[in-house]
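Record type: monomer structure entry
Structure origin: computed from sequence
Chain ID: A
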Amino acid sequence: MHTQCTPDQMEFQEIGRRQVVAAFDGGHISSDGGALLLREADARLKLIERFAACFSDHRQQDLIEHRLEELLRQRIFGLALGYEDLNDHDDLYRDPLLGVAVGKKDPEGHNRVRRQDKGKVLAAHSTLNRLELTPERVIPSNRYWKVVHHPVAIEELFVTLFLESFPEAPVEIILDFDATDDLIHGEQEGRFFHGYYGDYCYLPLYVFCGDQILVARLRTSDRDASAGSVEVLAYLVERIRARWPHTRIVARADSGFARDEFMDWCENHGIYYVLGLAKNVRLLQKIGKELVQAKELYEQTQQAARVFTDFLWSTRKSWTRQRRVIAKAEHLSKGANPRFIVTNLPEDYAPAQRLYEDIYCARGEMENRIKEQQLDLFADRTSAQKMRANQLRLWFSSLAYVLMSAIRRLALNNTQLAKATCGTIRLKLLKIGAQIRVSVRRIWVHLASACPYQDVFRHAWIALRQYPMRT
């Protein structure tokens, strides 16, 4: 039977005797209800406010529509909510909920002067693009690029945020160094082919401590993985010791950082290290007896067998001194699987097996954090022409990670999302349907009643509200 309907309604397949009718008449509805948590965490820690202090805004303030802090919140909150490209903001700039999260006083865009701008709350991609592409210094004759970021101040901010996250000095911290590939799909500045990764890429350097990021430095790939790591370590040690003079500092990394310069600096400045060491013929000969023992154990049990040993060792030319090497002689069903690490930790710190299995192998967690950066928060979206702009994009992603990590650390303890990745937190806690109503006195955000994580959301809200506001 044909039914009467208005032109704006859409009819779908019936369910039993019930008609299914839809229309775009729900008012202001967003899929990003959890953006309120991002705003609350940012307000407590003042992340974006302090990040904005790392920029110089040379725009004429009485003529601008979007303050610098609002632009940064829009860009960084957008990354946290899963919007990886600037073009996404051409669809988002009418979203009143994101306008609320960013801090817009007119989240519905009613007070716009031009009729065609009614309903536009946030900046479009062109404005955000100018934020990214600013040169090192403002050119007075250029009417567009007026906001300049200061790299040194931004790098200092990440270390400051890390230091502030501890209520008291820890006994020990482990700084994880790693380099990874960031594939390039255009003719960007600094484009080089990397033989190991087999493609054109950047080679960013990351430093994490636990799940907190301290350094995210974009580099060209025509260099050794450890290039610049000594300078980075020296700066981090200086900042950390100024705050925590008695904290033991351990540097941990894979074999790409087992360079004499890196180890020598650590030894001369009281820093411990645990580094992977690439195997070679001389090292394999050194543990020949242990490899035989591991094979015999495997043949007896048909289970993976490990034999550990340690010894003093030096390369023929590249090292300036002997160092303690720990070897894992392992035999698996596929054959021998020897591994080596080099360290200056004292023998009473931990036995060889524990030092390898519990201390060194734990660096794999850092690789998970880098995956969060690149897969969940789009740190690999370095498609701008200039490296300066791509570095800023990497910092945007890194600050989005700091924000998400702060929510996980401060607001999700003792919940089922306490160890969730940024992508999982976004999916389950931020992507919540919400209806927005704006009155003279209130902004009502009606979150979806069917949200299965209401208890976790409330727990996170309470925890953030109880966290002391940074002054």
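Annotation 1: DSSP finds 16 helices and 19 strands in the chain.
Annotation 2: The CA atoms of residues 210 and 421 lie 14 Å apart.
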